[in-house]
Amino acid sequence: MVFMNLLHRFMKRKHLIDVTEVFRSLNAEKKNRIAKLGFYVLLFARLVLSVMNHIIVKDDAVHESAIS
After folding, report:
1. Is residue 4 part of a domain?
2. pLDDT one-digit tens code per residue, 12-67
3. From CA 6, how far away is CA 4, in angstroms rounded?
4. Structurally, how many domains does the chain consist of?
5. Quick check: 3 and 39 in contact, CB under 8 A?
6. Strand, coil or helix: 35
7. Is residue 1 one of the residues assigned to a domain?
8. What is the pLDDT of residue 58?
9. In this predicted structure, what is the pLDDT of residue 57?
10. Residue 38: strand, helix, or coil
11. So what's the pLDDT on residue 14?
12. How far is 59 from 44, CA to CA, in rounded Å?
């Protein structure tokens, strides 16, 4: 989804900034970048939780096999 948005902006040449019109689209760009940052923060949190879950499950499996 994010990649498609970036590709769309690149194909429409919206990734380029005209210095004379930068302040007209400042609020829209700010909202777009905050949304993208929020998406990446959620993705990072999911990654960290997944790694922690994997470590905990793997650790439990090691303890169970040692007890048996």
Report:
1. no
2. 877 677 777 777 878 888 888 899 899 999 999 999 999 999 988 876 666 666 56
3. 5
4. 1
5. no
6. helix
7. no
8. 79
9. 85
10. helix
11. 74
12. 22
* CA distance linking residue 19 with residue 11, whole number of Å: 20
CA angle 46, 6, 3 (to 5 degrees): 40
Q: Which domain holds residue 46?
A: 25-68
Question: What tokens were used for 6?
Answer: 């970036």
Would you call 32 exposed, middle or buried from its count of C-beta atoms within 10 A (0-12, 13-18, 19+)?
A: middle
Structure tokens belonging to residue 26: 């400042």
Q: Which two tokens stand for residue 24?
A: 């007209």
The whole-number pLDDT of residue 68 equals 54
Task: State phi, psi for 20 to the nearest 5 degrees.
Answer: -80, -20
Mean of pLDDT values over 2-20: 76
- 52, 58, 61, 62, 63 from 66: Cα distances, Å: 21, 13, 9, 6, 5
Place of tokens 């380029």: 16
Cα–Cα nearest to 1, from 44, 47, 36, 42: 36
Rounded to two decimals, the pTM is 0.61
